[in-house]
């Protein structure tokens, strides 16, 4: 029982930080989403020791383990978008393919260059 | 009646999640994507029962109410890995920064050149970042959350099927660089592949996934202005 209440308290704390992130983003007219502000806020609070890891980690681990669940109802929106894939499928496929290849190569090359001092391990 | 509908849509979505997850865990194939498979099951059931999209919305709102708090929870793994974050700071900043920039710029320019409608173009920009960020980035700039989530899954599937091979082919063997590329280019799906390569690759990919979301959200306003000015 106590564990359950603690867990709910952790969810409430995460929710509070999320809502605060939204408020800050709206109040300061930031062009970034509130959830991004919320992450930065929680990361700062953890580093400053204001929020100990034990206050959020059980709820965070649980929600992150099931994060994919929350994506399904969002993706159901696709029901309204069938014609877009029909009409622009090729252009979209090219945009996604080329952009993804270049992202992989760009990140991989520059990170490897900066890592040259480190010995690569054989895994 | 409408409350029954809410209950039905939620149970349907939970059932679709559990089934797709069981299938994925059984076969572990990157093409068996839980998001796409789950959404396809829900859409197919709604269509078969002649239920339009509107009645799904109240249940959708209830189910996604924890998405924001869950996303904020991504700060926890970031904090746990803070020593890696410091140790590999130059590679992380440069790799994630360049990758996020390249992803949006290239996708945006191709979408622009192909004459895609504005709403579709704005939804393809955040395709390399994990869904909770992509959905919000698309929404605040005038794109569609549903489309954005589909492009994210397409990117992640592509990246998890071909990403590791592409990196090996390009001579990128350093585990830190591989992890960063998989996380920056293919978010959570790439991170899952990186963990299969090893602990180091997986941790770096997880860091890169969250940081790419933050970076992409931060440079998106400039990118949108640049692309729409033409």
Tag the structure with descriptive keywords.
heterodimer; A: 123 residues; mainly alpha; 2 domains; extended; B: 230 residues; globular
Describe the protein.
With 123 residues, chain A is mainly α. Helix content of chain A is 75%, strand content 0%. Chain A contains five helices and no strands. The mean pLDDT of chain A is 90. The longest helix of chain B has 30 residues. Chain B is globular and about 55 Å long. The relative contact order of chain B is 0.11. Classes of the chains: A mainly alpha (123), B mainly alpha (230). At the A-B interface, helix 1, helix 2, helix 3, helix 4 and helix 5 of A face helix 1, helix 2, helix 3, helix 4 and helix 5 of B.
How is the secondary structure organized here?
The complex is a heterodimer of chains A (123) and B (230).
Chain A: H1 2-27, H2 34-48, H3 57-65, H4 67-75, H5 82-114
Helix pairs in contact in A: 1-2, 1-3
Chain B: H1 2-27, H2 34-48, H3 57-63, H4 67-72, H5 75-80, H6 82-87, H7 89-113, H8 118-124, H9 131-141, H10 145-169, H11 175-197, H12 199-228
Helix pairs in contact in B: 1-2, 1-3, 7-8, 7-11, 7-12, 8-10, 9-10, 9-12, 10-11, 11-12
């Amino acid at each position: 029982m106590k564990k359950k209440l603690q867990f709910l308290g952790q969810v409430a704390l995460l929710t509070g930080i999320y809502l605060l992130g939204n408020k800050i983003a709206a109040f300061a007219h930031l062009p970034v989403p509130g959830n991004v502000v919320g992450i930065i806020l929680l990361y700062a609070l953890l580093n400053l020791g204001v929020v100990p890891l034990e206050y959020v980690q059980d709820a965070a681990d649980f929600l992150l383990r099931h994060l994919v669940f929350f994506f399904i109802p969002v993706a159901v929106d696709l029901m309204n978008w069938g014609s877009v894939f029909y009409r622009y499928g090729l252009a979209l496929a090219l945009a996604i393919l080329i952009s993804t290849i270049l992202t992989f190569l760009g990140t991989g090359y520059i990170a490897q260059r900066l890592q040259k001092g480190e010995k690569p391990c054989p895994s | 009646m409408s409350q029954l509908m809410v209950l039905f849509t939620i149970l349907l979505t939970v059932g679709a999640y559990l089934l797709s997850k069981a299938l994925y865990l059984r076969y572990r194939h990157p093409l068996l994507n839980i998001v796409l498979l789950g959404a396809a099951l829900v859409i197919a059931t709604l269509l078969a029962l002649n239920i339009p999209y509107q009645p799904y919305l109240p249940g959708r709102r209830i189910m996604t109410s924890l998405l924001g708090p869950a996303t904020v929870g991504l700060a926890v793994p970031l904090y746990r890995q803070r020593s890696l974050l410091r140790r590999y700071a130059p590679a992380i900043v440069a790799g994630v920064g360049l990758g996020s920039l390249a992803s949006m710029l290239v996708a945006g320019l191709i979408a622009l050149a192909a004459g895609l409608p504005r709403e579709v173009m704005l939804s393809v920009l955040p395709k390399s970042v994990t869904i909770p960020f992509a959905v919000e980035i698309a929404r605040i700039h005038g794109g569609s959350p549903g489309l954005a989530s589909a492009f994210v899954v397409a990117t992640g599937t592509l990246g998890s099927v071909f990403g590791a091979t592409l990196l090996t082919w390009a001579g990128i063997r350093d585990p830190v660089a591989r992890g960063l590329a998989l996380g920056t280019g293919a978010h959570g799906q790439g991170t899952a592949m990186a963990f299969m390569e090893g602990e180091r690759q997986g941790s770096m990919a997880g860091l890169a996934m969250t940081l790419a979301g933050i970076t992409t959200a931060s440079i998106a306003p400039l990118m949108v202005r640049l692309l729409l000015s033409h």
